[in-house]
Automatic annotation (TrEMBL):
Gene3D superfamilies: Vaccinia Virus protein VP39, Winged helix-like DNA-binding domain superfamily/Winged helix DNA-binding domain. InterPro entries: ArsR-like_HTH, HTH_ArsR_DNA-bd_dom, Methyltransf_11, SAM-dependent_MTases_sf, WH-like_DNA-bd_sf, WH_DNA-bd_sf. Residues 1-96 form the HTH arsR-type domain. The lineage of its organism: Bacteria, Pseudomonadati, Myxococcota, Myxococcia, Myxococcales. Signal peptide: none annotated. This is ArsR family transcriptional regulator. GO terms for molecular function: DNA-binding transcription factor activity; S-adenosylmethionine-dependent methyltransferase activity. SUPFAM superfamilies: S-adenosyl-L-methionine-dependent methyltransferases, Winged helix' DNA-binding domain. It comes from Corallococcus coralloides. NCBIfam families: HTH_metalloreg (NF033788).
């Protein structure tokens, strides 16, 4: 009863009630709440502290920000109070502003994900170097929408673009048709167990796909099976990080990898002649990538 009484007193403040109502709809950070309720950051932080102190909200770090969300379970005695707050008349128009904010956030997220892909300068340089290569048979593990697959198809003999997402493969096919690329075969398969013939590939590329799979070492072994003697494996991956939000929001299964751990997996699969390169952090991004290559012995 004492906790319930304190909760009533805390929610007697209109701004706190609005904040609770907003975080009950979506996780929000302080900057976003300031823009929504129109009060100073110090005031918003004070209200959040009061709500957190009573266990009404929780905080979680995501992509360098602290997000606040509703902490109550459905059997909490205070849940009817929160339900009333959510159902009350939205005289301040908070819900409409929240909808606009969430749409803008999704747009930014989509842009950030695209920024993880190589830029135009990289593609031009890679294309120039690739023109010096002999025609190769290539497998692109976890091709997504086919960014690398289409780039490699311009110099490869044939590319097998493999992914488990039909939506991603559908987009990849459309983009390949747009670019008039006829030397790509799209496969919806499990990277742990592929139907492709062993010893048939000159090159396997695994670009930021291992953190999506259940057993990275098994996928590396599958790459070794597909490669011809003397064939190469190229792995681009994230270094270890603490951005746990990617597990639920982006479907990651691993928070990056130590290059030493992945190199050990390649060695266990039979690869030799390793090269490794680590990319510097890009601005405020919490993510860093590294490149690891290995050769299947002749």
């Amino acid at each position: 009863m004492d906790v319930l009484s304190q909760s009533f007193r805390v929610l007697g403040d209109t701004t706190r009630l609005r904040i609770l109502r907003l975080v009950a709809q979506a996780p929000l950070n302080v900057t976003e709440l300031v823009s929504l309720v129109g009060v100073a950051q110090s005031s918003v932080s004070h209200h959040l502290s009061k709500l957190k102190g009573l266990g009404l909200i929780r905080e979680e770090r995501q992509a360098g920000f602290t997000y606040y969300s509703l902490a109550l379970e459905s059997d909490d005695s205070r849940w009817p109070l929160v339900r009333l707050a959510r159902e009350a008349e939205d005289a301040a128009g908070d819900s409409a502003r929240l909808s606009d904010l969430l749409r803008a956030r999704e747009d930014r997220q989509a842009l950030n994900e695209r920024l993880l892909e190589p830029g135009q300068s990289w593609f031009l340089w890679a294309g120039a170097l690739a023109s010096l290569l002999p025609p190769l048979d290539v497998a692109d593990f976890g091709c997504g929408t086919g960014v690398f697959s289409r780039a490699m198809a311009r110099w490869a003999r044939h590319v097998w673009a493999i992914d488990q997402s039909e939506d991603a493969l559908s987009q990849a096919r459309t983009l390949a048709q747009r670019d008039a690329l006829t030397n790509i075969t799209f496969l919806r398969e499990d990277l742990h167990r592929l139907s492709l013939k062993g010893g048939s590939m000159d090159l396997v590329v695994i670009s930021q796909s291992l953190h999506h799979v259940e057993a990275p070492a098994a996928v590396v072994s599958e790459a070794a099976r597909l490669l011809k003697p003397g064939g190469r494996l190229v792995v681009l991956e994230l270094l270890p990080h603490e951005e746990k939000w990617v597990l639920e929001r982006l479907g990651h299964r691993h928070l990056g990898f130590s290059p030493e751990v992945l190199e050990a997996a390649l060695r266990e699969a039979g690869f030799t002649s390793f090269t490794r390169e680590t990319h510097a952090r890009d601005g405020a991004s919490p993510f860093r990538v590294f490149l690891l290559t290995g050769v299947k012995p002749s």
